[in-house]
Specification:
The complex is a heterodimer. Chain A is mainly alpha-helical. Chain A has two domains: about 80 residues, NADH-ubiquinone/plastoquinone oxidoreductase chain 6, subunit NuoJ (Four Helix Bundle (Hemerythrin (Met), subunit A)), CATH 1.20.120; about 50 residues. Chain A is built from eight helices and no strands. In chain A, helix 1 packs antiparallel against helix 2 and helix 2 runs antiparallel to helix 3. Chain B is mainly alpha-helical. Chain B has 19 helices and two strands. Chain B has a two-stranded antiparallel sheet with strand order 1-2. In chain B, helix 6 packs across helix 9, helix 8 runs parallel beside helix 11 and helix 13 runs antiparallel to helix 16. Classes of the chains: A mainly alpha, B mainly alpha. At the A-B interface, helix 8 of A face helix 4, helix 5 and helix 8 of B.
Chain lengths: ~170, ~475
């Protein structure tokens, strides 16, 4: 087993364990903290794919911004009751069943994957020559300027929506 | 580096209609602060939409195919015709909502502005020739619609609808992204025509992963169109949303969903027609069956129209299943007719709403013809059209879809569709029966307004004109899509 394979095996196994921990903890704050560890592991996987920008985004956006949001929501909802009630926690056989089906499905598909040549303009060498941040920045403002601008309108709508739903006086 | 790319001002020409709508949306928010009478905001909105409509028509001519932004954005007859549907949809929606939102005490500029943004999203979807643009357009449309559904946040029903729609919509977006990423991983491109080329060049048309990506995308579009089995959200959301928004979203997002479904299947996966038809056929049959049969049991007219719109999505899907451009033409033709009849029906539903009276029960329509003969007659036209009874346009819409599906060799699908359309006639005609043959249970007064009258006049006229002279619409659609 080569070193990258060893690392991948470690991350894959620990990510599976962490995901299970996230959904099985009774205390929602514990779940969120396990999720933080999970996100950092995912970021490490991105590093192995030579996607350092994606790894940084994973940490900043997911581990930084999103988890704070989760903790806020947990603070706002009074979850003491849910902690003792079983209501939300006895669905695991269904979940396990679906997961099993998915595993079988992916194993079946696995055998049919054929190796394809590297595709697209942005090969690993091309990205490495100027760094992924530079490549993304350039592409975002030239080739993908239209999607970039549409995304800005989506953010604008999100702001308007937050104001309308939270602040507008409606009788 | 000599990777210089210059963006000249000329490049934004193709998206001027979209930019117009975004600008109008922003102006409406500002106008809301200055103007006390919200009707003025609405009228400015309609005027802005007309400018955008004019721009779409004038910019390059309606039919000439144009490509912009490195092939990501395409302007052709197909896209432009869908944009026409979206423009009519928003104009009619604004017309029927001015008085209604006042009664609901939720009349403010952001409402109209969000309608603009949602329509912009739909237009981007119709013009998208790249999966990323398509996805972003879809999110823009969906996000605006989630907010509009939950606008009356003091009403639990509206909240429930918005949350359901939001969660299931987010879920379907995840499916779409899975599909896009699988397809991108296989083909190395997100451009629709590029995907078609790569699939051929790499010889991976039969690969199960290609199939999986395709299925994920169909699932996501199925959510937006409300195809069975992804229709669960529709009745609850249609019932809980403000009725004007129900009218808006029963046409707009559905039409946009069909636009991208047709575009993706015909442009990116033409080689897999057999495969996608085999997925869509059972979906279409189930959609027609569930829509027509469950609607029979409804007592709330908004829920009934929700199931009716599910059934109609099933009929429209037949046009795509046919797999020919003629089939696509019949689907677009149906959508245009569906726009008029559905918004017309919802306009009548809105008229029954007044302060302190919901007017959503089927029984509220009992004996309506005695007190309000004109409104009852209009409702009769809309119901006849939805049921597909000649000489209304609904008949023409169904007729052409069934004809194309028979031409494509699916005679049994046409027979199934006719059977369900006969079943569905029952619940449409039940309303007519209630209006004309029952005695009124209570006094119903209608809320009218000049814009409402205009909307009703346009919708009813169009249904009759397209029903009696079908070639007017059909030639336009044919010319747009077939060239």
């Amino acid at each position: 087993m080569t070193l990258p394979q060893l690392f991948f095996t470690y991350f894959a196994i620990s990510m599976t364990i962490l995901s299970v921990l996230v959904v099985t903890r009774r205390n929602p704050v514990h779940s969120v903290l396990w999720m933080l560890v999970l996100f950092i592991h995912i970021a490490a996987l991105y590093l192995f794919l030579n996607a350092e920008f994606l790894a940084a985004v994973q940490i900043i956006v997911y581990a930084g911004a999103r988890l704070v949001l989760f903790v806020f929501v947990i603070m706002l909802l009074n979850l003491k009751k849910e902690k003792t009630e079983k209501k939300y926690q006895d669905q695991w056989p269904v979940g396990a069943g679906i997961s099993l089906l998915m595993i079988i499905f992916f194993v079946l598909i696995m055998g049919k994957i054929t190796e394809l040549p590297a595709l697209g303009k942005y090969s690993i060498e091309a990205i490495q020559s100027e760094g992924s941040l530079m490549t993304i920045g350039k592409v975002l403002y030239t080739e993908y300027i239209l999607p970039f601008e549409i995304a800005s309108v989506i953010l604008l709508v999100a702001i308007i929506g937050a104001v309308v739903l939270a602040k507008k006086r409606i009788e | 580096m000599e990777m210089e790319t210059t963006i000249s001002l000329l490049d934004i020409r193709p998206i001027i209609p979209e930019l117009t709508l975004i600008c109008v949306g922003l102006i409406l928010i500002l106008l809301d602060l200055i103007v006390k009478k919200k009707e003025i905001v609405a009228v400015v909105g309609i005027a802005g939409t007309l400018v955008a409509l004019f721009g779409t028509y004038k910019l390059y001519g309606f039919y000439e195919p144009q490509v912009a932004f490195g092939g990501m954005f395409v302007l052709d007859g197909y896209a432009n015709f869908f944009k026409l549907i979206f423009f009519l949809n928003i104009i009619l929606t604004i017309c029927i909502s001015m008085k209604y939102m006042k009664i609901e005490k939720a009349s403010f500029g952001e409402y109209y502005s969000l309608l603009m943004f949602s329509t912009t999203g739909m237009m981007i979807m119709a013009s998208a020739a790249d999966l990323i643009v398509l996805y972003l357009g879809l999110e823009l449309m969906a996000l605006s619609t989630y907010i509009l559904v939950g606008l009356m946040r003091k009403k639990p029903r509206s909240n429930e609808a918005a949350i359901k729609y939001f969660f299931l919509g987010a879920f379907s977006s995840a499916f779409l992204l899975y599909g896009i990423s699988l397809t991108y991983g296989l083909t190395g491109t997100t451009s629709l025509s590029g995907i078609a080329e790569s699939l051929n060049a790499l010889n991976i048309i039969g690969s199960p992963i290609t199939y999986l990506g395709l299925i994920f995308m169909i699932v996501a579009f199925g959510f937006k169109i409300a195809l069975v089995p992804f229709h669960m959200w529709a009745p609850d959301v249609y019932e809980g949303a403000p009725t004007s928004i129900t009218a808006f979203m029963s046409v707009g997002p559905k039409a946009a969903g069909f636009a991208v479904l047709g575009r993706v299947l015909f442009d990116a996966f033409p080689a897999m027609q057999g495969q996608w038809a085999s997925i869509l056929i059972p979906m279409a049959v189930l959609t027609m069956a569930a829509g027509s049969i469950i609607a029979l049991a409804q007592t709330n007219i908004k829920r009934m129209l929700a199931y009716s719109s599910i059934a109609h999505a099933g009929y429209m899907l037949l046009g795509i299943i046919a797999g020919t451009h003629e089939g696509l033409t019949s689907m677009v033709n149906y959508l245009m007719i569906y726009l008029f009849m559905n918004i017309g029906a919802f306009a009548i539903v809105i008229m029954l709403r007044r302060e302190g009276f919901q007017g959503e029960d089927l029984e509220d329509y009992m004996g309506l013809s005695k007190s309000h003969p004109l409104a009852s007659f209009l409702m009769l036209i809309f119901m006849f059209s939805l049921a597909g009874i000649p000489p209304t346009a609904g008949f023409i819409g169904k007729f052409y879809v069934f004809m194309e599906v028979i031409n494509a060799g699916y005679v049994y699908l046409a027979i199934i569709a006719v059977v369900f359309s006969v079943i569905s006639a029952f619940f449409y005609l039940r309303i007519v029966m209630y209006m004309y043959m029952k005695d009124p249970k209570q006094e119903v007064t209608l809320t009218t307004s000049p814009t409402m009258s205009i909307a009703l006049a346009i919708t009813a006229m169009m249904i009759l004109i397209f029903g009696i002279f079908p070639s007017i619409l059909l030639n336009l659609v044919r010319y747009s899509i077939l060239g």
